[in-house]
Amino acid sequence: MEANFVFASIFFRFGHMSTRKKIYFASDFHLGSYPLEHSRERERSIIQWLDAIKVDAAELYLVGDIFDFWFEYTTVVPKGYIRFLGKLAEIADLGIPITLFKGNHDMWMFDYLKKELNVQIVDNELELVLDNKLFYIHHGDGLGSGDYKYKLLKKVFRSRFCQWLFARLHPNLGIGIATRWSKHSRLSNNEDEKFLGEDKEWLIGYAKELESKQHHDFYLFGHRHLPYDVKLNPESRVVNLGEWINYYTYAVWDGETLSLEKWEKKS
């Protein structure tokens, strides 16, 4: 009887894993953004989505700005997100690899999530071959021409010396400053995002520049907040993953097709 139960458990686990063929990409959850009650509601929807995809997910890629602010002190991390982090732990324990990109809001991720959840942390870009297709993945901040002010700030914020200085602040002060800053973001003020046209969308322009040097089948970005799927040429596409404040969009690769999809929120 006991042997049959063990065999059934093993069959269920590995048989279930054999159905995991899809690879999911999402970005810009901005958990913790102002107002907090909206963030908690968004967290519930994200967890519902994660519950739905864990059945067939082979891998999960979270492409930056998952948190509206994140800074790891030596013994302190921002409080909150406990249900979300618990769900990631559950997914990791199922044997589903998770890759987490640093965004412009959560670039101060070091080794806490790697140690706790065994996730892979990506600083900048990642080139990935899936089913003989080449993917270029980046959060999207600081790419393309222009925006020199932000590019300078990014270098400052990512410098180890500046991170060391910030870590000298008491967490109440450091995280408090970041929270007040968040209240002035474009998300908190619900600024309307509009597609500027292929010639003015800087991430499309950046993808065209890369494509002229090396072919990629897919370019995946976050950061822009506006979901779109644009053909560069018959064999190459640029996909922006959108965000989870207004759009609740994500991409899924099933081994043959990359599709941009929308999660329908549940009450």
TrEMBL record:
Q: Which residues form the signal peptide?
A: none
Q: Which GO terms describe its molecular function?
A: UDP-2,3-diacylglucosamine hydrolase activity
UniProt keyword Transcription present: no
> Which residues does UniProt call coiled coil?
none
Keyword Hydrolase assigned to the entry: answer is: yes
Gene Ontology CC = membrane
- A GO BP entry: lipid A biosynthetic process
Per UniProt, the keywords (alphabetical) are: Hydrolase
- The identity of this protein, by name, is UDP-2,3-diacylglucosamine hydrolase
